[in-house]
Structures are given as structure tokens and as C-alpha cells.
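quick q for whoever's on today - can somebody do inverse folding on this one?? i tried earlier but teh output was garbage lol. C-alpha cells:
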């Protein structure tokens, strides 16, 4: 239906205005005209009723058409929501595509980094193998050098032992000749032979100590101290005697020798070393109180000596 409600109402009002002037004009002529006016009014009423009926029908038609229109409006709202949702989905797809691109870049970086690390470790492993080979060669050379050094030292020690034995024998021979000359009553060069014999005896014992033949060294220094009680090397002899016993871990005999150096030869250059060695013996014998006392005396009597410096360190360890 293409007729709108305002158009129908306008047509009805126009008809009403047309009929009213006509009826009014007839009213002044005669009674018949009045009747005709009544008839016209009746017709207008009927027309008005028909117009109202048509208007009601039009209203119902409009209402019937408005319902699907509202449904279509709702459908359009849903369509807008769907369009908006579709736009958001498109945005998410773009973001996902961008993230995938970033993931590809990161994956490529990881692959390149792994390849560089592999190359680095391969090169490092090769360098380490080269260094290991060089180190092995150096170790072999060092081992050979140490073996040669040990062999040389062994030979030197053997030579020194033989030399010491020869000197010891010569000293005994000199002593025997001196004794034999004295027993015959002949004038022998005693004053000349004794200093040489003394020095040889001392040197022989010291050579045995340096060769680490500590038992022979102890015997040699004991013989030296008995035979030459007035020697200028007496303090040295007692010190090396104590050192020989200490090297054999015989602190029972080492301490008296060191004590003799400390008490009889207080101004000897060996006195500080004797005190330090005696303290070591006392510490080895678990007599820490005596060891601390000896070290304290060492630091007090010989504060500027190298032995006193070492004694301070040992004293700190014993506390």
C-alpha cells in the first residue's frame, strides 16, 4: 500500500471544506437545499466514518510493516556488531602476522647464534688440542730435564760422598801419624797438622749433611766436638749436630745440641736459628707451651733476625 496516513487526512479535510460552502449557499435559497445539506452532512459523516475505517486499516498495515522493519533494524544492529567484531578480528590477524614475523626474525637470530657458537667451540676445541699437544711436549721435555737433573745430582752426591770419605780417611791417617810421632818422642808439626785435621773433620761432617747422609753427619760432628773442644767452629758444630738429629726426627738428641748453642754461644750467628729449630722440635713433640716460650724468647732476644720473623709467624699459628 503506497498511500500514507497524512495524505488521506489532507484529502478528507479538503473535501469537507469544499462541501461546506456549497451547503451554506443552498441553505439561503430554499428548504430543499437545507435537506440537501442534511443529506450532505450525512454523506460527510459516512465519508468520515469510511475515512476513519480506512485510517484504522492503514494504521494496522503500518503496524504490520513496522514489526519486520524493527526486526530488520535489530538485524542491522547485529550486523554492525558483526562488522565491528570482524574489524577487531582483522586487527588481531594483523597483529598475529606481525608477531609471526618477529618470531621468524628471533628464530633466525637463534639459528645464527647457535651456528656461531658451534664454530667458536670448534675453533676453541682445536686450539685446546693444540695447547694440550704443546703442553704434553713441554711436560715430556721437563720430565727428561728433571731426570737428567736427578741423575746429575745423584752423581754429584756420589762424588761428594766419595770425596768426604777420602777426606775422612785422610784425617784419620793424619791423626794416626800425629799420634805415632808423639809416641816415638819425635818433634812433630802438631801445631801445623791439627788445624788442617780440624777443618777436614768439620768439612767432612758438613759434606755428609749436605748430601743428606744425616746419620753419618751426626757421627762426624760428634767426633768433631769431642776431638776439638776449643775449635772456633764449635757453635757451628753443635748447631749442625742438632740439625742432623732434627733431620732424622730425633728431637730428644736435637734439643740438647740446640740448647748448647743458645746458652754457651749467645752471640753466635747460629743462636737465632738454633732457637727456631728447638721450637720446631718442641712443637713436634706436642709441647706447645715450651715452643711458644722459646719463640717468644727468640723474638725478644733477636728481633731483627730472619729467624725472629719466621718465629712470629709460627707463634701466631701456635696460639
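ok took a stab at it. sequence:
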Amino acid at each position: 500500500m503506497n498511500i500514507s496516513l497524512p495524505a488521506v487526512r489532507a484529502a478528507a479535510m479538503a473535501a469537507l471544506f469544499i462541501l461546506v460552502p456549497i451547503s451554506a449557499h443552498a441553505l439561503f435559497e430554499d428548504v430543499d437545499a437545507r435537506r440537501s445539506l442534511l443529506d450532505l452532512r450525512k454523506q460527510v459523516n459516512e465519508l468520515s466514518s469510511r475515512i476513519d475505517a480506512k485510517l484504522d486499516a492503514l494504521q494496522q498495515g503500518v503496524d504490520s510493516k513496522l514489526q519486520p522493519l524493527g526486526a530488520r533494524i535489530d538485524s542491522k544492529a547485529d550486523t554492525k556488531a558483526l562488522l565491528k567484531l570482524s574489524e577487531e578480528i582483522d586487527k588481531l590477524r594483523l597483529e598475529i602476522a606481525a608477531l609471526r614475523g618477529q618470531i621468524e626474525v628471533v628464530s633466525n637470530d637463534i639459528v645464527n647464534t647457535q651456528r656461531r657458537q658451534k664454530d667458536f667451540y670448534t675453533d676453541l676445541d682445536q686450539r685446546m688440542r693444540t695447547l694440550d699437544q704443546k703442553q704434553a711436549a713441554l711436560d715430556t721435555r721437563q720430565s727428561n730435564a728433571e731426570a737428567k737433573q736427578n741423575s746429575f745430582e745423584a752423581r754429584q752426591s756420589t762424588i761428594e760422598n766419595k770425596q768426604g770419605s777420602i777426606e775422612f780417611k785422610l784425617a784419620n791417617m793424619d791423626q794416626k801419624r800425629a799420634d805415632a810421632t808423639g809416641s816415638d818422642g819425635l818433634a812433630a808439626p802438631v801445631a801445623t797438622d791439627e788445624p788442617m785435621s780440624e777443618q777436614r773433620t768439620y768439612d767432612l761432617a758438613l759434606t755428609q749433611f749436605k748430601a743428606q747422609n744425616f746419620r753419618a753427619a751426626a757421627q762426624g760432628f760428634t767426633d768433631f766436638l769431642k776431638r776439638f773442644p776449643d775449635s772456633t767452629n764449635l757453635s757451628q758444630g753443635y748447631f749442625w749436630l742438632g740439625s742432623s738429629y732434627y733431620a732424622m726426627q730425633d728431637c730428644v738428641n736435637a734439643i740438647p745440641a740446640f740448647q748448647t748453642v743458645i746458652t754457651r754461644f749467645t752471640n753466635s750467628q747460629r743462636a737465632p736459628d738454633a732457637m727456631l729449630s728447638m721450637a720446631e722440635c718442641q712443637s713436634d713433640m706436642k709441647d706447645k707451651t715450651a715452643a711458644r716460650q722459646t719463640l717468644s724468647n727468640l723474638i725478644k732476644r733477636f728481633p731483627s733476625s730472619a729467624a725472629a720473623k719466621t718465629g712470629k709467624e709460627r707463634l701466631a699459628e701456635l696460639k
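fwiw The radius of gyration is 68 Å. also Residues 5-82 form one domain. so keep that in mind when u check it
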